[in-house]
Structure formats: C-alpha cells, structure tokens
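Form 12-C: Joint structure prediction
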Amino acid sequence: MPELIRESVASDFPVLEGLYPLAFPDEDLLPLLRDLFASGCDLLSLVAEADGAVVGHVVFTMVQVGRTDVKAALLGPVAVGPDRQKQGIGSALIERGFSLLADENVSRIFVLGDPAYYGRFGFGPESKVVTPFEIPVEWREGWQSRTLSDGASDVSGTLVVPEPWNKRDLWAPPE
Ligand SMILES: CC(C)(COP(=O)(O)OP(=O)(O)OC[C@H]1O[C@@H](n2cnc3c(N)ncnc32)[C@H](O)[C@@H]1OP(=O)(O)O)[C@@H](O)C(=O)NCCC(=O)NCCS
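Section 2 - Result
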C-alpha cells in the first residue's frame, strides 16, 4: 500500500515523464497527459507516494454522456512503476478516485482497458454508451463501465470527451 495518495501538482510532471515510459514501454501516453494537464479540463489526477517518492499515478477525466446531465468520468491512464507493482498501489489509487468522485456526485465511471484487471473494481461490459471513435474489434471487450451511485445505471448515448481525448489513436491498440 502507498503511504500517501494526493492530488498531483505541476511539479510532479517530471516524475511522471520518467514513470510512464517504464510502465508503458510500448505506448507513449505522455502527450495525452501533457494535453490533459495543459487543457484545463476537469480532471482528478492522483499520485501515490512511497518512501517519499511518487510511484504511481491515475487520472480521471470528467466526461458527458450524450446530452444527459449524468455526472461521469473516464478512468485512465493508470501507471505504477514496475518495481512497485503488485503492492496494492494501483488498486489504492483507483479506489481513492472512486471515493473522491462519489463525494462529487459522479455516478458513472467508464474505462477502456483489460477486463481481467478492471473487473476487480466492479467494471462490466458497456454497450449502451458508445465511444467517440469506434473501437477496433480486438479491443471491444475492453470498453467497460460501473456505476458509483444509484440512478445512473440506465444511461445511453455517445460519450462526449474533452479535446485531449478526441483522438482516434487513443481508442485503438498501439500500432
Ligand atoms: C496495471 C497496474 C496499474 C496495476 O498496478 P499495481 O499497483 O500493480 O496493482 P495492484 O497491486 O493494486 O494489483 C495488482 C493485481 O492486478 C493484477 N494485474 C495487473 N495487471 C493486470 C492485467 N492486465 N490483467 C489482469 N490482472 C492484472 C496483478 O496480477 C495483481 O493481481 P493479484 O492481486 O491477484 O496479485 C500496473 O501494473 C501498471 O502500471 N501496469 C502497466 C501499465 C498498465 O497496463 N496500466 C493499465 C492500463 S491503463
């Protein structure tokens, strides 16, 4: 477990620039992170500290479902340094995010990721809310959601994402 989970600040970015290429050797997610932080869009960005150093990160982006007023967030990316994985840090970051978002009355969370991992956080296949770009067939089972509070279980429409997420490449496996 991490010693501390806190909201990220601008001075954490150089650490994230080191952490992400280690966690994702085949995928460069730093441009997305840079855009998210620079865009001023509504985010929840959390870092985990262990032994006084940042060892993990997660970001949730506030999104809209069609024209509904459902408060919703998109989870990802999440990264933990390879030497700190399997110590509960990723889970702690995600669960803290859920708790902070629930406090803000966010009722639905979406994710595009491995169901084998996200299933443990209560995510299941999403079919009524569609992604801004069509997901290639090999990734389709990765599109998942979970509710955080009652009342948002039956939403449908197209996910409306802020500009940093409005890129086809982010909705397909890396080449
Ligand atoms: C995925 C990741 C964030 C998990 O962080 P973590 O701190 O290692 O996670 P936790 O310790 O809380 O949980 C680890 C558990 O998840 C499992 N797990 C990790 N990645 C998994 C995957 N892709 N599929 C299935 N299970 C996975 C581990 O086997 C472990 O299982 P166990 O608890 O039964 O031993 C981290 O491994 C990571 O940064 N990976 C590389 C980047 C990545 O794939 N990010 C997620 C996609 S956005």
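Section 3 - Comments
Helices lie at 13-23, 30-39, 89-103, 115-118. The mean pLDDT is 94.
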